[in-house]
Task: structure prediction
Amino acid sequence: MADRLPADAPRRRRPVPESLREYGRGIAGGLLFSLPLLYTMEVWWAGFTSHPGSVLAYLVATYVLLLGYNRYGGFRRDVNWFDVFTDSLEELGLGLLVSLVVLVLIGRIGRGTSLQEAVGMVVVEAGTVAIGVSVGTAQLGGQHREPDEEEDQRRLRSADHVPGQLVIAFCGAVLFAANVAPTEEVVMIAVEAQPWCQLGLAVLSLLLGGLILFQSDFTRARRFTRRRLRRDVLAGTVVTYTLALLSSALVLWFFGRFQGNGLAVCMAQVVVLGLASTLGASAGRLLIQS
Result:
């Protein structure tokens, strides 16, 4: 996304890795703020029943809100209007894309969904997602400065304290999962989800966890993660997702969601809720500590 520079400063092209990190923070922020709504039946039905004119007005209103936030909020107060328009358009597009992917993976958009219904659902969901993308990009990023020696040693001690990190990750996973687990939508999605959708949710959860912890510099994640060796990234991502699935199973059991359901449906519920739990175990863990 655009650089946050004074209005009279020359526009500088961002390096690709830095842009990807910013997009990663945006996706994480969008899901953090909107995931319960993506799992809410009433919002799905609002997309089904809304008039095309209302859907268009909602899309325009969302863009106006993004313009206002990017111009006057967060870290974007000193950028020129061209950058504000560009950033807002990118965030809206990212919100639409994230909404579409999640709605497809949870089985709300499929072969039997008409184009009007699909567009309505995506746009209604994308409003909150896009605002979350904007907030996540601006507010949840790391502070890009070189740490001094004392801070670096403190970071390494924190990252190496594995039991403490696991406990905090588990707390974050339970916190996020408990917001979604009591709803009927989790069972509905699990019953209707095709195996490829469940696999897609698992892959998305793994990618999201690894992205937040090791690639996006999310809320100065370097303080709480080990050096980015390939084995550490792989191990950290797998452990995070394992904790997310465990917390999902425990929360679903606590709310009685396993009663009367077969093993396949119970496992599907765990995978469906695992997306929220992964956000908690990765982003939630970093937010709790930051």
Q: What stands out?
A: The CA atoms of residues 101 and 255 lie 28 Å apart. Residues 16-139 form one domain. The two ends are 24 Å apart (CA to CA).
